[in-house]
Amino acid sequence: MILQIKHRAELFFINTDPVLEYSTALPPHVIPVGGLHIDDAKPLFHPWNETIEAATKGNIIVSLGNLANPAGMKPKQARSMLKALSRLSDYHIYWSVGPKLRLSDINEKDVPKHISLMAYVPQNDLLAQKRTRLLITNGGISSILEALTHGVPIVGIPLFGANKHNLNKVVHKGFGVLVEKHQLTEETLFSAIKEILNNPWYEKRAKSIKKLWQHSKRTRLADAIRWIEYVAGKHASKLSKSMVPNRSLVHLTNIDVFGISVLLLIFPLFFSYTAFLVIHFKRLQCGKK
């Protein structure tokens, strides 16, 4: 049922943007609308405004996604993250840890004052603050697009699914670094964070991409509305649809062409080997006589 709906769809809206993606060609009925979920940033009042201004060097956001519950992290990983973040006392850190407001095997007393464990973090609004220096994320596409919107560099810790693919694009574009989950220690995380904070290249790159992103984002909603009206009207976009869904696996993968090519290579070798065996056998027979 789902495949039938997918094959019959006239339009596909995808939550990404060419500014972030590798160079690729999309069919005309696949429309990038990345960032439509991002609202205008709202002002932050008590207690947010007080902690934001109190930080000596700025603010850091730690959010590993709605599906990643830091309270369920392995104790070793949670301790490594806490130790690394504890060394950044000149920054105020907002760490979204879920409704339980705790970390695995860590006493609340061990959390320093410059780290705020939050059930919820208004991520987009915090990213819009001029004093926000860094986003630590698992690599969800929505978080990456929000960081792009506000020109904030990223330290990525991919946890599952498309996280690593998304973060590889961030690294490729030059506004973030990646720490593998299985390599997550106090030192690897702290080193990645300091690389971003101490190297102005990442912030400059993030601000540069922000300008490109904002220019393209202005047209996204208009593009989506225009295409919806086009399809909903008397014009059908069938001519612009890819023929891929209607083709078999054989056609899509060119298995038939590959198979014939392999056979053309194998047959001469097979006949040559057979001829060699026949000649060799006859020589053996002649030798016996």
UniProtKB/TrEMBL annotation:
<protein>
    <recommendedName>
        <fullName>glucuronosyltransferase</fullName>
        <ecNumber>2.4.1.17</ecNumber>
    </recommendedName>
</protein>
<dbReference type="GO" id="GO:0016020">
    <property type="term" value="C:membrane"/>
</dbReference>
<keyword id="KW-0732">Signal</keyword>
<keyword id="KW-0808">Transferase</keyword>
<dbReference type="InterPro" id="IPR002213">
    <property type="entry name" value="UDP_glucos_trans"/>
</dbReference>
<keyword id="KW-0472">Membrane</keyword>
<comment type="similarity">
    <text>Belongs to the UDP-glycosyltransferase family.</text>
</comment>
<keyword id="KW-0328">Glycosyltransferase</keyword>
<dbReference type="GO" id="GO:0015020">
    <property type="term" value="F:glucuronosyltransferase activity"/>
</dbReference>
<keyword id="KW-0812">Transmembrane</keyword>
<feature type="transmembrane region" description="Helical">
    <location>
        <begin position="257"/>
        <end position="279"/>
    </location>
</feature>
<dbReference type="Pfam" id="PF00201">
    <property type="entry name" value="UDPGT"/>
</dbReference>
<dbReference type="InterPro" id="IPR050271">
    <property type="entry name" value="UDP-glycosyltransferase"/>
</dbReference>
<keyword id="KW-1133">Transmembrane helix</keyword>
<keyword id="KW-0325">Glycoprotein</keyword>
